[in-house]
Amino acid sequence: MTSTAAALVDTLEELGVEYVFGYPGGRVIELLEHIPESEVDLVRPRDEREASVMAEVHGRLTGTPGVLAGQGPWIGSLGLIGQMEARLSSSPMVVLTEASERGEYSTLAPYQQARGDYGGFSLPSILDGVTKEWWFPRTPIETLRSTQLAFKHAVADRPGPTAVILDGDAITADVPADPTPPAWDAREQARTWDAAPTASDVAAAVDALEAANRPVIIAGNGVHAAQAYDELAAVADAYDCVVVASYLGKSTYPETEDRAAGVVGSFGHEGANRLVSEADTLLVVGCRLNPMDTNWQAPDFIRPDEQMIVHADVDTRNAGWVYPADVGLIGDAKASLEALAEAGGAENGWAPERAADARDWFTAPECEDDSAPIKPQRAAKEIQAVVDDETIVTADSGNNRFWLLYYLQTPAVRTYFGSGGVGGMGWANPAAVSAALTTGKDVIAVAGDGGFAMTMNSVETAVEYGVAPTFVVLNDTSLGMVRQMQGEREIAGVEFHDTDFVKAAEAFGAVGTRVTAPDEFADALAEGKAADVPHVIDVRIDREEDMAETLASSFYESIGGLHE
């Protein structure tokens, strides 16, 4: 007989799982004891929060579910940040957790009990609010079948997180030899099929694009999710389009290309925003058009009464959700773009010149400023100088993300990823470790001092697992974005004491450096990128450079700004 826990690990192997990101505890221990005998590797960071981000990023980069494992109370609390990001950033993820049940004792003054019945708390209710689907199997066969379905639904339609709550005998008992109903072959059960737009919708979209004089593509995270980079470029060429990106769509198209015009949104490039406003036809691909992307629906930005809108999305609810769409292409971004590229083409002579004008917004005089402390614009340009086709930047939340969105001009696809779904601080560090493990590429994590301190033990995880991201701390000894929002008011809790991140890095086994001048930062970046151990660079930036005042688009300002 085979135990359910052992059979579950066999299932992970059959489904091609490379890593499980997790922390031992509760019934998950039964599962993890079979990992050393398998081809699956456990990555155990210092807490469930970091594990959840690492699983989310693995799913985002590979297109296959990242697996998070851990004890129920902590997966349902600390581990929610990665699950929320996966839900809103469409990253495939499977959570294997448990309810910390104690058999016949579970309802007697329960301790950690998460089944949701009398006296305990409800992990199913928590996960129901975050995941696409969840299962609470009660038998060994249900456990195996539920896990197979979790992998299926994590990638079906719009990707996202799913969860299986392991419980009692359903994980500890042996798998019956001849069950009814059975569990099928894992690969066959987890198989999915890609959706594609209808021929009539493709034809309508082609007509709109061929008739356009000023066509603009808004590329969103769905292009990343489908890895439809070549198809995006083919459509841009075929119909002579300008390409702009949403916050999550940055690096779906190289920002150095002739048709690239930057990032749209409230703190996006002014040139990119103006191009969207000037367009007579918008092709929106894999972008839900959230408030930040749309300048909080500034009336002069996107105007469905005056512009033709073609909206391509894997989720039928998203097309025409925020603005009425003239044409909806429902399906995987790769399939929709491929169909458009093959079905037509047009020229307008407008796109390259206007895109070139828009790219001027990637730079400013401050990008060349040699003063100390370092201007954040200059810091972004020093990071750009070391980013090549084989480098990934992970960007945290707060001011640092917007400085990077604006001034880091990505040279290739898949070179920049940010925490733009739920936008949690502390994301960039574990994301960088996961990206380094998943891809083997050079990775640069960029965070403010607030976000870095939240998850700086990711540096130790990188040391332990033999990867060497470079961790950049844009340090203004404060919660910079909140501090700059307060204006004449005084908001509590925005100032930090000056933490010695150099000593912290050294304690973790990494190399730490503090820099105050641009040339020092350039040298430290080059050294960190070339090293085989993690480097932490504490960059002292000019805290008086006001991000919102500097970067807010004119469309955002037209409705009052600062809707955060």
Largest sheet report: 6 strands, parallel
Overall shape:
globular
Detail the poorly predicted runs.
none
Strand order of the largest sheet: 2-1-3-4-6-5
Task: Give the helix tally.
Answer: 25
Q: Pairing-aware structural class of the strands and helices? A: alpha/beta
What portion of residues belong to β-strands? 15-25%
Description of the molecule:
The chain has 564 residues and is of the alpha/beta class. Helices cover 38% and strands 15% of the residues. It has 25 helices and 18 strands. Strands 2-1-3-4-6-5 form a 6-stranded parallel β-sheet. A 6-stranded parallel β-sheet has the order 9-8-7-10-11-12, with helices on both faces. Helix 23 (518-530) links the parallel strand 17 (511-515) and strand 18. Helix 1 runs parallel beside helix 7 (140-155). The model has no long low-confidence stretch (mean pLDDT 95).
A few lines on this structure:
With 564 residues, the chain is α/β, with parallel strands linked by helices. The chain is built from 25 helices and 18 strands. Strand 1, helix 2 and strand 2 (41-43) form a beta-alpha-beta unit.
State the main characteristics:
single chain, 564 residues
Question: Could you outline the blueprint of secondary structure elements for this entry?
Answer:
Blueprint: H1 4-14, E1 19-22, H2 28-32, E2 41-43, H3 48-62, E3 66-69, H4 72-75, H5 80-89, E4 93-98, H6 123-128, E5 133-135, H7 140-155, E6 161-166, H8 169-172, H9 186-189, H10 199-211, E7 215-219, H11 221-226, H12 229-239, E8 242-245, E9 260-263, H13 270-278, E10 281-285, E11 308-313, E12 327-330, H14 333-343, H15 351-359, H16 376-386, E13 391-395, H17 399-407, E14 416-418, H18 428-439, E15 442-448, H19 449-454, H20 458-464, E16 470-475, H21 480-485, H22 501-508, E17 511-515, H23 518-530, E18 535-540, H24 547-551, H25 554-558
Parallel strand pairs: 1-2, 1-3, 3-4, 4-6, 5-6, 7-8, 7-10, 8-9, 10-11, 11-12, 13-14, 13-15, 15-16, 16-18, 17-18
